[in-house]
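User: Please predict structures.

Assistant: First:
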Amino acid sequence: MARIKQRQDDGQVFERFLTAHTSARFLCRKVDMADLANELIPMLSILQVAHERLVAREASRVLILIVKCIRAKLVSMNQAQDLFQLDGAALDALLNYLDLPPKQDLASHLSNVRRCAKP
């Protein structure tokens, strides 16, 4: 039972690290690898960045799929807002996304729209 609890705690620490809510040094201390921290920190930081890229790529893929479904009239605007918990500004940004230059990252574009929309 203690081993399961320890794995859950370790899992939470890894999740916090991958979502940039804890440092690589803290992760090393938490999993009893503090003596290797100087060697592990650069590798863990690269891993964290790679994870963020994968998440952003998947989020962009899903968001583009939403746009395509709306344009193909498979999903209504209201359904998309309800299903994906999008506000009107985010949904408008999604629908206008395909008109933007192709180098623009959709996830960061939506983050910028949300920042501008907040009072």
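Second:
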Amino acid sequence: MTDDSLREIIQAREKAKRDKEFRDWCEQIGAIPSDFELKLGGGLVADLELQPARWLTLGLDLLNSSRGTFAIQQLGSGPTPFMSSFLPYPIFQLGSEIFLKGLWLGQFEECRRITHFSYVDQSVRMRYAVRLKKELGHDLLRILTLVRQAECYQRDPEIVRFLKIVEGIVRRYYFPLYKADKVSSQWAHSRYPKRFYDDAGKQASADAFQSHPPQWLIVKLFASVERHIEKLWASCNG
């Protein structure tokens, strides 16, 4: 038996094993009763996280998760390199919103001082939840404006530059899609995929506006600020 033949046999067995595991898992999950609910023990409730570093990490994870690829890569074969990926609007909107709100939370010492096991009173959680929803909302440019108002960031050239670049990204790559959201009173619409409609001509296109920033550049931008902001917060705490 050749090495190639042996390799093919091993790969076939592994595939069969994974396929069985997948079928078994689907059967188990599909059999869960429709009234089943996970319940937290010990009187625990899942509520708002106020540790800003966790917001930054989650936002960066979202920005890093895109599967968008440039059309020229789609013509080829094999996996598309990360360097050739782009960020579709819904992913950028989600990731950058959470990251920027983490920056906003980071201006408050009581948030920066939260550790893994810190308890935050329910009234405090509610106060920040209301501000995050009503004061910041989901308008990226408005969120940028409010983050800029934090005195601790106004004195930091790197954060000032970062916020200006993010605003440029919104305006250069996403503004036509972003602007469409402003006519809706439903905040969730800002996260929906967009189609381009010509209501006068009764026509539409799924890809009438091709403008995508390279994913690796945005990830590098946000990651560098995540590293920098941790040092800035540490100096604030000191």
